[in-house]
Amino acid sequence: xxxxxxxxxxxxxxxxxxxxxxxxxxxxxxxxxxxxxxxxxxxxxxxxxxxxxxxxxxxxxxxxxxxxxxxxxxxxxxxxxxxxxxxxxxxxxxxxxxxxxxxxxxxxxxxxxxxxxxxxxxxxxxxxxxxxxxxxxxxxxxxxxxxxxxxxxxxxxxxxxxxxxxxxxxxxxxxxxxxxxxxxxxxxxxxxxxxxxxxxxxxxxxxxxxxxxxxxxxxxxxxxxxxxxxxxxxxxxxxxxxxxxxxxxxxxxxxxxxxxxxxxxxxxxxxxxxxxxxxxxxxxxxxxxxxxxxxxxxxxxxxxxxxxxxxxxxxxxxxxxxxxxxxxxxxxxxxxxxxxxxxxxxxxxxxxxxxxxxxxxxxxx
Length: 365
What we know:
Layout: H1 13-34, H2 45-65, H3 68-73, H4 75-92, E1 94-96, E2 99-105, E3 108-110, H5 112-131, H6 143-157, H7 162-179, H8 183-203, H9 206-216, H10 227-238, H11 250-253, H12 265-297, H13 302-326, H14 344-362
Antiparallel strand pairs: 1-2, 2-3
């Protein structure tokens, strides 16, 4: 079936409530981090975020209503479109702060690398389903999946956006394990991954190497490469148990904390809402991940398992890497916090993924 016929009771209202709760906390944090702090009335971030959430709801409706098996049949078409978008970006994309990651669509700046995450989930789910019909995946069976990952990986690295590129690779590796892999092939993959990691270091930009070095030696350059991470940890630690209160955070309010409304939005929450507010956010994410896992394990076929599992992997990696980055347990890699960080492309991608989860749940029988 092309379109899934659903009634109100078919929707996963708990998953919807969890999604809206995180989006609401994110709006509050964005408002607190930016309102009246050098932001013009024309360019108010939280209002833009509301519009992006509305657009994201349309994408979520699409991925909910179009049967996931139909989406699987057209997965390579979507993949081709996003790869062409990434290639176009390198030639004609908008450059901001030395990074060429955005395509201008009128007054809207769109980031194809974000949408490539959920589209890669679709393409890999389709490919791995086809390749695993004979049992566990062998080395030859992985050639096409590896190619599907390497192409967007290389294009995203070129932007440069190493954080997103590595996230795409991690997503793919975990999806392969989810599908099942032969032991000998696993050894080959581990050796290859180690070699590529060492090789990647020599192709990294100086500032990217600096972020890794700063993570290993956090006090080496507190006013330079380590400034952002240091200010984030100060914000998180100063929140205490109950926080300083909405719009009362000093690290964000006095602009000590860079990227406070995007990649470091969790630091704003921790400073202003404290341990209790941070724990609530973590609980909501955990609830979504558990719901997603239940949907994946109850799917009717391997395609549904891989699609739902891929979305869970995508969301989990974002949450873990972003929060680890915020509290100084991972290098600063520029990974947004789903539904909470300001950014339209991230919101649209996340809500499309949530819709895909509901799609698999609705069509599980």
